[in-house]
Amino acid sequence: MASPKVLNLRNNQLSGYIPQNIPATCGLKILDISENFLQGQIPLSLANCMTLEIVNLGNNQIDGAFPCHFQAISSLRVLVLRSNKLHGEIRCPHSPSTWQMLQIIDLSSNNFSNTLPMSLLASLEAMKANVDFNHFLYELFQLMDIYYQDTVSVTFKGLKLELVKILTIFTLIDFSGNRLEGPIPDTLGDLKALYFLNLSHNVISGSIPPVLGNLDKLESLDLSWNYLNGTIPGQLANLNFLSFLNLSNNQLVGSIPIRGQFLTFSKSSFEGNLGLCGLQLNKSCSTTMNGTEEVGSVSTQSNTDDDVDNDDIKKKWFYMGIPFGFVVGFWVFCGPIVFIRSWRFAYYRLWDKVLFRHSRP
Fold this sequence. Notes:
Elements lengths: L5 E3 L6 E3 L12 E3 L4 E3 L14 E3 L6 E2 L13 E3 L4 E4 L15 E3 L4 E5 L2 H5 L14 E5 L4 E4 L2 E5 L2 E5 L8 E3 L4 E4 L13 E3 L4 E5 L12 E3 L4 E4 L13 E3 L4 E5 L19 E3 L5 E5 L5 E8 H39 L1 H19 L2
Parallel strand pairs: 1-3, 2-4, 3-5, 5-7, 6-8, 7-9, 8-10, 9-15, 10-16, 15-17, 16-18, 17-19, 18-20, 19-21, 20-22, 22-23
Antiparallel strand pairs: 11-12, 13-14, 24-25
């Protein structure tokens, strides 16, 4: 009996542990056991399936470390481990093999920690240049001409989508929802065929590397809910295909670029960065004497308007106070003379003496 090429047990009520004794004769090309209740660790014996191209173990309760033994599978193109209980570092220091063909890697919503894996990212050769392949189409029964086309769920541009046919030109890195820290490595700038990058909801710090502006195929970039600081690199405005951007809830400062695709992004792409200013946030950036933008110095239009209003109010009260003061002073001086008889007679006698004195020869 020939070894099966496809095992798809997706979206059932399976529980328990994944079998650990996968035979060396394994000829699987597609393994999809996602959206179940499977527990335990990923079997080391899965490395026996040297022809695997798609592995989808997402949305289970699998724990353990990052499956470095998968790096021995050079044909692997799709690796989805999202929404499990995996933990530790995303790195394989003792594995010399690389993923030359890997184009979709989704490790989101786990408990991975430490820094982003520079060596792993550097090995993603399929994301460095577009190679024109066909759909993942596998002939199961040659005589009957029956084909299987795999489906993978991804979160793309903020929406959950299903890729009914996985095109090899589609490339994705999703490390969101973990505890990854440290800076974004410049290595990402080499992945010029990358379409989707999601590093949101981690504890990543440092500045946004300008080399991300080299990713001219990039359509979706999500770096939200981290601790990124510094300014937004102007090179990102060169990404002509970028249709989704989320830099919200970081510690970014300075002005937001006002050219290219940045003119199409709304306030939600930048909010939660108190030091950012620009057209998209309705905040004007203060300028130096030379007319250049002063990084990190922010003054809002509303604050300027408030200052002008305050000055106008002070001027109004000043001019209104002049006649009021005159009226009050007049009645303080003349009121007793008008209403008190003795004061009035004394006032008249005073003027009689003054006039009589000046009229004497």
